[in-house]
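Task 17 of the worksheet. Students: predict the tertiary structure of the chain below and write it out as structure tokens. Keep your answer in the requested format; marks are given for formatting as well as content.
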Amino acid sequence: MARYSYYFYNAYLCSMYTILLMIFTLHIGHLFFKPNETKETWACATFLVPVMIRNTYDCLSSQQDRQTARGFLWNRYLVAVLVLVVNFALPASNVLDGEYSIILTIIVGICLMLFVFSIYEHAATTYHDFRLSFPKEAKLSNLQFCCLILFHILLVIAFLVIFYICPNEFSTYQRYQNNQLLRKACHILNIMSIPLNYCALLAWNCEKLNFKGIHPGTKRRWMGVMKKDKKGKWVVDVEPEDHRIFVV
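Model answer:
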């Protein structure tokens, strides 16, 4: 079951990235390109951007075979924040003119690049010796679950207010079209980001993490649990007896 959850969640992240990239490409097309150039921009971004980022990521992670608990948890916080930033930056960049619009558009592009890094971190394809996961007993409290639902309801209200106070007249007709697109896209992204925020809260609650990989000493298959020690450092808590090494 855990394997199916792993593949399902990574497929969800890839779908989320595809939707974000499509919205971002259409957003750029409406702001900076002619109407007939939007499709070409989308096609180039879809195929070229992930390839370039994957090559960069492989170069950065080629020397790292072990996933760290700190990186595992902070990645869950990061991806939730990225989608939230994108969701507010897109309508703001459409309303503002000049350099402010360009700066916000660049920020959204950087967030999408970091989102790709986060997908590879979630998939943990480069971590062969040590890979982490949430324990089965990890869950949200009733209060946290209610706060999560309330947070997304407040976001719906916030976007309704934002688009209500947006000017009815834009500098170009393309910006007007873009505003109609973002009016729907922001609500869709808000709903789709619920699993991301759920995992971020799980990471916040986590006191233990499951791991599996290869033991550095015996080179056998290694599974167990990590937890924080008194100094706040993540250490191995459970280790199979046949992996224990005694010095005589």
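Marker's comment: Confidence is low (pLDDT under 50) at residues 240-248. The first strand starts at residue 130 and ends at 133.
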